[in-house]
Here is the input.
Amino acid sequence: MKLVEQKCQVIGKDDAPLASKEIYNLSTEISAWYIGKNFIKREYKFDNFRQAMDFVNKVAVLAEEQDHHPDISIFYNEVELTFSTHKIGGLSLNDFIMAAKVDMLK
Amino acid sequence: MKLVEQKCQVIGKDDAPLASKEIYNLSTEISAWYIGKNFIKREYKFDNFRQAMDFVNKVAVLAEEQDHHPDISIFYNEVELTFSTHKIGGLSLNDFIMAAKVDMLK
Here is the structure.
């Protein structure tokens, strides 16, 4: 099933972070994202602050719905999102599911 | 007139940034803010993400109204705001006016 069709699952602190090979395979579905060691990040540009805020509010609704929240930075018309699964100190499938879903909101 | 009662003014690129003494005097009205060289910054904590987003949306309305926008970072229940007047590469009265007004929104 595609990432965008999946739902975030509850992660326990004893769950293992994704392995490099899994990360590599999943990254092909979110090719615009920067894949860091413990996080994934993407910057979105908009015409103005209002559009940036509209996007952030859509991301916020999705984050509450899926109970997985990105760090969000807003620099006037630019929005930077960072996903990480802090509980396991690494990346989980949830980070990739959210990235794919967020890409659909732009 | 108190900072919170003032309105942001249009700043030209040839306007001078505030001098150290002016910054010092103004900072007494926004004592919870960190005063950097070219910016001022404050972190606000909330009970949850929803409350943090409600605050950010109030800040956004004020920023549009006064046409002076902070950089905004949201880390779940924490919101960090940074004001700077990029056009003059320093701090203007507008930064302090906004800081005082934002403090009223919390």
User: Anything to note?
Assistant: DSSP finds three helices and four strands in chain A. The longest helix of chain A spans residues 49-66.
